[in-house]
Amino acid sequence: MNTAFMKHLLMAVALTGMAASLPAMARPDDITENPQIEAFKKLDVNKDGVLSVKEAGKDSLFNTTHFAKADLNKSGTLDQQEYMDYKSAEQNKEVERIADDSVITASIKAAILKEEGFKGLQISVETHRGVVLLSGFVDAQAQVSTAERLAKETTGVISVKNSLIVKR
């Protein structure tokens, strides 16, 4: 397997693991309170221990749809546990998405570097939510097509925007 690909893959896995373990690494005297508890308390303006739709709406995550999903007991309010559980789950999804995008990017770069006749460093690969952007310069039109094909063949890719330019 390509060494550059393995380095990118290992880095993505390491960063994901580090992000997940940071709270566990902090010492109790370093933390005044859980940031989610603090956020909940700030949103609970009437201090009744629950969040109304209006109060929760001050958090950009909690639009009406998300509020309804978070309100597991269908009480019309969110208690602290419902708020924290839903917020944590959504944050975890975002971390997974970022890790997935990093793996897609690394996989495409590795495939391009392995391809005969490519100078892989002239091609930039960016991924956001499975959408890949290829940019940079190549020597021939065939390389534009090959890079796009390699990207489209990569697991997890939803679509490819190919902005590669043939040098003249």
UniProtKB/TrEMBL annotation:
Residues 100-168 form the BON domain. Gene3D superfamilies: 3.30.1340.30, EF-hand. Keywords: Signal. It holds the Pfam family EF-hand_5. Residues 1-26 form the signal peptide. One of its GO terms (molecular function) is calcium ion binding. InterPro entries: BON_dom, EF-hand-dom_pair, EF_Hand_1_Ca_BS, EF_hand_dom, Lipoprotein_DolP, Transpt-assoc_nodulatn_dom_bac. This is Transport-associated. It comes from Methylovorus glucosotrophus (strain SIP3-4).
